[in-house]
Protein 1
Amino acid sequence: MIRIIALGKIKEKYLEEGIKDYLKRINKYHRIEIIELKDDVDILKEEKQILKYLDKEGYNILMDINAEQLSSVDIAHLTSQKLMKYGNINIIIGGSNGVTDIIKNKVDQRISFGLITMPHGLFRLVLLEQIYRAFKINNNESYHK
């Protein structure tokens, strides 16, 4: 199972539709779900919510703007390896104020999609697209480049 643990709800209809589309596409390859947590100005409250979903037996990834950047092929390899080894991958998207050091220290890996800033809903859509792309790459299926 792949779980995306995200703070906040999607408000824009066009993003909601894109997210639903990619969830449907990914589910043809692997089970995936999004867990939406309540965003809060207090990151300690967000921390408590996130900690409930970190999987001790699964592989936990934090999306972190200051972390290592991976290519789509790297993400495909990572997805394949970690699902095979751990069975579950949890991907955490922190709130607008970031996450606590406790969260940063509890995850197995931190990755970045670059130094740009984007709205959380759009980032969630981009993340889903990259997960879908990873399955296409891993299955040697064509997908636009």
Note: Residues 65 and 114 are 6 Å apart (CA to CA).
Protein 2
Amino acid sequence: MKRIFLIVLDSVGIGAMPDAGEFGDEGTNTLRSAHESSFFHMPNMKKMGLFNIDGVDFEEGCGEPVALYGRMKEASRGKDTTIGHWEIAGLVSENPLPVYPDGFPEEILREFSEKTGRGVLCNKPYSGTEVIKDYGKKHMETGDLIVYTSADSVFQIAAHEDVVPVETLYEYCRIARKILVGKHGVGRVIARPFIGQEGSFVRTTRRHDFSILPPADTMLDVLKAAGKDVIGVGKINDIFAGKGLTSYVYTEGNTDGIRKTLGYMDEDFNGLCFVNLVDFDSLYGHRNDIDGYAKALAEFDSALPEMLQKLKEDDVLMITADHGCDPGYTKTTDHSREYTPLLVYGAQINPGSFGTRETFADIGATVLKYLGVSGEIAGTPIEQK
């Protein structure tokens, strides 16, 4: 019985890709920015080879790393969560998902308002915390929904829980999801509930993503069809719109995600446990909070010894990311086009460098090969030396 634990540290990029300038992200390096904080402390990932990866030159590497390590290049034309995870799972997106730097077209908003019975506020790219600060009062006075986007392919709906019950907000998101198809098929419709009073509005943990269905099978579908367990932890179920999973559980942040991952390590299953730890991105990267980002990395690193101890003889732990979100990059608070790390550890894994791979999809191909499953997805398995 083989188990793979694939953990995505959401947004932990390790340096700008060659085409980062085309995305407005030249010079970004999420891990380097976090490294500038006095709270940065990652001795366990250092032992695995994190700082031995090509291009990571801001801290001395380990003499004898215990993991297989290297960096991943994104082949898809994007830098968002959906595209990144799809590619990790073997689906390369040649065309980017639509984005709306000037807001959504009037015909989209008109249909949305007609079907929800509510007006719309904002309709601009906006910070999620700033938008409720600037529009929360008017929303509470009028009942109009706060609709906004970002540099990513997202249609976000913010509403106060006292004005719009959370389940009603989710229904509004389902309405938007049905409208946003075809050329307007955004990657995610996101419910952003908040609470509090003017001057102290705060978002709650009851966010929910309604993703577009992956346009082709991924490693999740291949594994499920082969009779393997495919467990999603955190946002995984939302990112893949439930496609290819045999079970899933949501989390309330990194601490809860780590706890639930450790719990699955105590269970018997045969297949993949796919984990997303979102706080790096949502709480710290998007808010330019370098210290918070560093603390979150230190928290994950401190959990690694227990994770490694729970691994069985045939188990494999894979740690990667889906894009960057440099907390030290002050030109924007959006995602950044960066290389991502990949660390692969297990009793059956030979330590060493695999250099730089041309697509995240090599991760999915490697998962399938290790689990002895064949399927038609992008990517080439990473061979051990």
Note: The chain has a mean pLDDT of 96.
